[in-house]
Design brief:
By secondary structure, the protein is an alpha/beta fold. Helix content is 50%, strand content 11%. It folds into two domains: 191 residues, no CATH class; 107 residues, NIF3 (NGG1p interacting factor 3)-like (Udp-n-acetylmuramoylalanyl-d-glutamate--2,6- Diaminopimelate Ligase, Chain: A, domain 1). It contains 14 helices and nine strands. The mean pLDDT is 93.
């Protein structure tokens, strides 16, 4: 499952397979030039896995995974239930999405650097985009390290002896790739057409019954989408203000995002950009479901749904 998720995630990555391989090659070159001390502090998994938020976490990695618990934010309560089910022979392991286990996110750089390529697709010169994203990475690293990392869930996982895989960016990449392909195929012309298209996805239909659905935060329902749509559906952390303004300057017409904050809205109003949100948890659900479909093409999988996740098959 782990190795397949990496392969599938690379195939759906905004950088393309060649772009990811270039990233890994550059990283290997840097590693070879590191001092012995630097190498001791380096996560060598990064040399073959470009997704720093996707890891084999704990437990027996050779056991058959026939019945798994899947959740977006796995914490202590879910793990306690998983332990009870495992002791009864009713569970083989856990798949967690967000890095609620502290060791799942090993490197902010690897998680965010794909945003430079995404900005390039929006019309921003790549070298300029990369400099901005690297500034963002430094700010996020400072913020995360300043808060400190919380490993209490990891301690519990080890104590309970559970088999856990953390898979984040590969799922987000699948959501990104799926949505772009869907829009390219269906060719919605106006904002209301795109909202209807997103709402028709079963993950969004289910969430809409609970009051959560795709929304237009800036723009007009009858406005044209334009030909420069930016999908911020992967890339880990949201683009900061400077990066987003560069995309607006490049002629962005529509912004589709999982999370929108005040400065996104302010810039969209200033530039007349349509701002649409694909709800966060339904989006995560869609990406995870696409990955599970790929798993099930190879072997049947029984899923226990927890923590904001529900299974929806497209196979």
């Amino acid at each position: 499952m782990y190795e397949l998720s990496i392969k599938i995630g690379i195939d759906a990555d905004p950088r393309g397979r060649k772009g990811v391989e270039k990233h890994l090659s550059e990283l290997r070159d840097k590693y070879e030039k590191m001092s012995d001390l630097e190498k001791k502090m380096f996560d060598v998994e990064r040399l073959t896995n470009p997704f720093s938020d996707t890891r084999l976490l704990y437990g027996d990695f050779d056991r058959d995974m026939k019945r798994v618990m899947v959740g977006i934010d796995i914490h202590g309560p879910e793990m306690i239930i998983a332990k009870q089910l495992a002791d009864e022979g009713k569970l083989d392991g856990i798949i967690n999405h967000h890095a609620t286990l502290g060791c799942q996110l090993s490197c902010v750089y690897d998680a965010l650097i794909c945003q430079a390529s995404m900005m390039g697709d929006a019309g921003v010169p790549y070298d300029e985009a990369r400099k901005i994203i690297e500034k963002d990475i430094a700010k996020w690293e400072e913020q995360i390290l300043g808060m400190g990392r919380n490993f209490s869930n990891d301690d519990l996982a080890k104590l309970l002896g559970l088999s856990i895989i953390g898979i984040h960016t590969p799922c987000d990449n699948l959501l990104y790739d799926y949505t772009k392909r869907l829009v390219a195929k269906e060719k919605p012309k106006k904002v209301k057409d795109l909202l209807a298209l997103l709402l028709a996805e079963p993950e969004n239909e289910a969430a809409a019954k609970m009051g959560v659905f795709p929304r237009l935060f800036c723009g007009d329902m009858d406005a044209d989408l334009g030909d420069k749509i930016f999908y911020y559906l992967t890339g880990c952390f949201r683009p900061r203000e400077e990066a987003f303004k560069l995309m607006a300057d490049s002629g962005l017409t529509t912004f589709v995002t999982l999370v929108a904050v005040d400065y996104h809205l302010d810039i969209c109003r200033q530039y007349g950009i349509n701002l649409i949100t694909f709800p966060h948890y339904p989006g995560d659900n869609l990406g995870i479901n696409l990955l599970l479909d790929e798993f099930e093409k190879r072997s049947p999988l029984d899923v226990i749904e927890v923590s904001n996740f529900f299974r929806c098959k497209r196979i």
